[in-house]
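Minutes, structural biology subgroup

Action item carried over from last meeting: produce the structure token record for Multidrug ABC transporter ATPase (Oceanococcus atlanticus). EB confirmed the sequence was re-checked against the source entry. Recorded below for completeness.
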Amino acid sequence: MPPIISIQDLTKSYQSGFKALKGVSLDIQRGEIFALLGPNGAGKTTLISIVCGIVTPTAGRVLADGFDIVSQWREARSRIGLVPQELTTDAFETVWDTVSFSRGLFGCAPNPAHIEKVLKQLSLWDKRKNQIMTLSGGMKRRVMIAKALSHEPDILFLDEPSAGVDVELRRDMWQMVRELRESGVTIILTTHYIEEAEEMADRIGIINRGELVIADEKQALMQQLGQKQLTLSLLEPLESLPDALAPWQVQLQAGGQEMVYAFDAQADRNEISRLLRKLSELDIGFRDLNTRESSLEEIFVNLVHQREGASA
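Output recorded by EB:
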């Protein structure tokens, strides 16, 4: 099955000489949740804005459900819903009117039943007659999502959707995202809440300084780039490490009471057995051991730092 979004060698340069995107290529599969992570200024919003037809690319090509976003913009745009970071709504309109109007902008016939369904999904039904100006920031964010869903798109972009949303609303919002995915909608999101990407996404891409550093399935990414850490609680504290432990590059922590061995997630597990045998030979006892795997946040930070160091 062809990807629902195909981004090919996408570049965006400005007259100042700044390159916001540098040859980004990425395929997004139909029905998946794809999380795009990166620090501020990395190019996340520029990438989304180009795909959604808001910004014109300098070079490259983007297909949305097989339609070119430039030469076939009307067909491409009709398949995309966008929830931008900024809360841009008409303050004096009611919730119902602004969501219904958004549907009309895409040339869709009125469908009150669909608008009702969306508002109920987003817990906005009781607010349907309220003016936007009377809503809280979290509720306004929900209205933005309702507007993006008003024309029944197959692709939904969520640019920092949890910004300014309290914990309860965020939980409800992610439940709605799961339901949308189950109904066949492809979700592409950017977020600063890395734990949400770790929980929600099928695949994760990391962008930094306009370049796509990596894009892979979440579990594969964590297996390839994560590290595991073995911590041994020693029976007796050590002042220093014996030279015989040098091959494992272990470290002492907690005043010599803990020994820490970091290893790649895909490393040969026999190394741990050899380390434990060596400790026994050296008469170094331990009362407890535990392992911890790198989080997605640690992987993200390490990748960004590696790329910044390579370009320095």
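Discussion: Residues 93 and 131 are 5 Å apart (CA to CA).
Next step: EB to file the record with the rest of the batch.
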